[in-house]
């Protein structure tokens, strides 16, 4: 039986493409040089809009909320190889803002959808990675509690952030600030169709599958892609991601209109700001704003996160391994 769950037939892609083995979940060979991951506070926006995809059959991946009740993750996270079936929606849990057993919100899935082009039995490759995405409809609209990321295509010159629940620090959220995107090119997807594929140098390892690669625009966070795989034989090691251009149609249809703009609500970002300021060598926000030639607002909202991440994207950083 090809599908044991509902298949999302938004895109009728064919097959045939590249070779080149990719492993997204088997190895920890996802650190691109030094380890630049930082532990971030999961109870603050935008981090609490990111969570763990847990299945009752075991294992975890990462997902990100892109609307009140929509989560994007990797398709392979929903397939149980041991049982050779797609995990039923009722056994798929999204735990937003998870940290050491605590969380901001939780919901089981109501439905989930994957593209027809994804082949769960195929050997991991650049071709399978093109289709390795899924949209999860949650039973509860927990996005109103956590906030969500916007969805917007991006060029290569943005200051990107990748954040997820890595296998070696799975109880805390780690983020790689200012990680490099090398390319975002169209690949032949068969039947005369082409899909974009992003190649990056973000420190994403197993557990980070489905994790967001996002950036700030006008002070708000937008999802640009989700990480789905890491090259094994290719050197230097690179990550493979699915850009939002591939699945934005699904978000639009399931969301009942255009993708929602970023929404963080009245969230506090004190810890996040302190962590990033400290990493940049600032004792307080006023000194940072002065150096950047910006006027400090009366109230620090999450727009400062964009300024801080932009600054980090242009500065060398010392190695910092995640500390649970």
Key phrases:
31% strand, 16% helix, alpha+beta, 18 strands, disordered C terminus, 324 residues, single chain
How large a portion of the residues is in β-strands, by DSSP E? 25-35%
> What is Rg?
19 Å
Low-confidence stretches: 1-27, 316-324
Class per helix and strand makeup: alpha+beta
Number of strands: 18
- The total tally of domains equals 1
CATH topology: Thrombin, subunit H
CATH superfamily: Trypsin-like serine proteases
Structural description of this entry:
The protein is α+β, with helices and mostly antiparallel strands and 324 residues long. It has a single domain (22-255), classed as Trypsin-like serine proteases (Thrombin, subunit H, Beta Barrel). The protein has six helices and 18 strands. Strands 1, 2, 11, 12, 13, 14, 15, 16, 17 and 18 form a ten-stranded mixed β-sheet that branches. It has a six-stranded antiparallel β-barrel with strand order 3-4-5-10-9-8. It has a two-stranded antiparallel ribbon with strand order 6-7. The longest helix has 12 residues, at 244-255. The chain is globular and about 55 Å long. Residues 1-27 and 316-324 have low confidence and may be disordered.
Please outline the helices and strands.
Layout: E1 22-23, E2 37-39, E3 50-55, E4 60-67, E5 70-73, E6 79-80, E7 85-86, E8 92-96, E9 105-113, H1 126-130, E10 134-138, H2 143-146, E11 150-151, E12 160-164, E13 174-179, E14 181-190, E15 193-200, E16 212-217, E17 220-231, E18 239-243, H3 244-255, H4 270-280, H5 285-292, H6 303-313
Parallel strand pairs: 11-17
Antiparallel strand pairs: 1-17, 2-13, 3-4, 3-8, 4-5, 5-10, 6-7, 8-9, 9-10, 12-13, 12-16, 14-15, 15-18, 16-17, 17-18
Helix pairs in contact: 4-6
């Amino acid at each position: 039986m090809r599908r044991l769950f509902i298949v999302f037939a938004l895109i009728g892609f064919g097959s045939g493409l590249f070779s080149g083995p990719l492993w997204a979940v088997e190895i920890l060979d996802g650190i691109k040089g030094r380890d630049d991951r930082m532990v971030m506070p999961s109870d603050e926006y935008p981090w609490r809009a990111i969570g763990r995809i847990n299945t009752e059959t075991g294992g975890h991946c990462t997902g990100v909320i892109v609307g009140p009740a929509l989560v994007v993750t990797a398709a392979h996270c929903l397939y149980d190889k041991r049982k050779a079936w797609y995990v039923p929606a009722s056994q798929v849990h999204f735990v937003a803002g998870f940290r050491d057993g605590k969380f901001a919100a939780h919901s089981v899935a109501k439905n989930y959808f994957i593209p027809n082009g994804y082949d769960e039995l195929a050997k991991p490759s650049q071709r399978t990675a093109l289709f390795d995405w899924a949209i999860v409809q949650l039973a509860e609209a927990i996005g109103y509690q956590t906030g969500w990321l916007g969805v917007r295509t991006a060029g290569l010159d943005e200051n990107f952030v990748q954040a997820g629940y890595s296998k070696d620090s799975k109880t805390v959220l780690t983020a790689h600030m200012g990680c490099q995107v090398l390319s975002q090119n169209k690949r032949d997807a068969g039947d005369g169709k082409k899909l974009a594929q992003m190649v990056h140098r973000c420190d994403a390892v197993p557990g980070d599958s489905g994790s967001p690669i996002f950036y700030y625009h006008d002070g708000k966070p937008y999802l640009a892609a989700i990480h789905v795989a890491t090259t094994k034989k290719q050197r230097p090691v690179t990550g493979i991601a699915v850009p939002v251009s591939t699945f934005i149609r699904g978000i639009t249809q399931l969301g009942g209109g255009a993708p929602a703009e970023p929404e963080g609500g009245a969230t506090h970002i004190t810890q996040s700001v302190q962590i990033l300021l400290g990493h940049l060598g600032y004792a307080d926000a006023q000194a940072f704003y002065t150096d950047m030639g910006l006027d400090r607002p009366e109230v620090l909202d999450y727009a400062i996160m964009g300024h801080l991440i932009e600054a980090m994207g242009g500065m060398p950083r010392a190695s910092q391994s995640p500390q649970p």
